[in-house]
Amino acid sequence: MKTLCLFLVVCASCASARVAHCQQLSDQLNSLRAAQSEYEDRQRAEARLQAQHERQAEERRLAQIRAAQHAQEQRHQEAVAQAKAQNDERLRDKARLQRQQDEEHALEMEQTRVKVEETKAMSAARAARAKEYVDADLAKQKAETDVIQSNADATRNVSEGMKELQTGIGKGAEAEGSRLFQPRD
Q1: What is d(CA 17, CA 114) in angstroms, rounded to the nearest whole number?
Q2: Which residues are CB-contacts of 79 (< 8 A; sequence separation ≥ 6)?
Q3: CA 125 to chain centre
Q4: Residue pair 48/55 in contact by the 8 Å Cβ criterion
Q5: Other beta carbons within 10 Å of 150
Q6: What is the pLDDT along the chain (185 residues), one digit of tens a residue?
């Protein structure tokens, strides 16, 4: 019995040591669980903070994209407005040029009409006074002929005068030469 008692005491002491060891292990497990729980809480807090930072960064990026899109849309609207203004100006210039060309064409047509009427009037006047025009043309041609004849007569007279002068000079020289050979008195 002693052995049994001893065995029971040893078992009890082992059991109490085991219980103490189990209690110690349980305490370690609890502290490990608390540390793990604290670590996981920190990880979740950091993940929430990281997610919040990422959301804020995404919101900033989206805001920048919206601002860039707004600026691009603004530039596009300005370019469209400028193109429309240029097109309107081009159309006004085209209309102004067309009006000017129309006015020039109308003026040319009026001038042509006046010339045709003038030509018709002149033709009618010439037809009415055809005899007078024929007589005037004949008188003009006769006057031109008379001028030509007068110039020819004048040239002939000058030629004849030169001929007579030379003939006279020749006769004078001949008479002078015949005196040289005559005896002197």
Answers
A1: 141
A2: none
A3: 57
A4: no
A5: 10
A6: 556 556 655 555 555 656 666 778 788 888 888 888 899 999 999 999 999 999 999 999 999 999 999 999 999 999 999 999 999 999 999 999 999 999 999 999 999 999 999 999 888 877 777 787 778 888 999 999 999 999 989 898 888 888 887 887 777 777 776 666 666 65
Check residue 171 and report its DSSP letter.
H
User: In residues, how long is the chain?
Assistant: 185
Locate the DSSP E strands across 132-181.
none
Q: Which two tokens stand for residue 185?
A: 């008195």
For residue 26, give both structure tokens. Answer: 């349980």
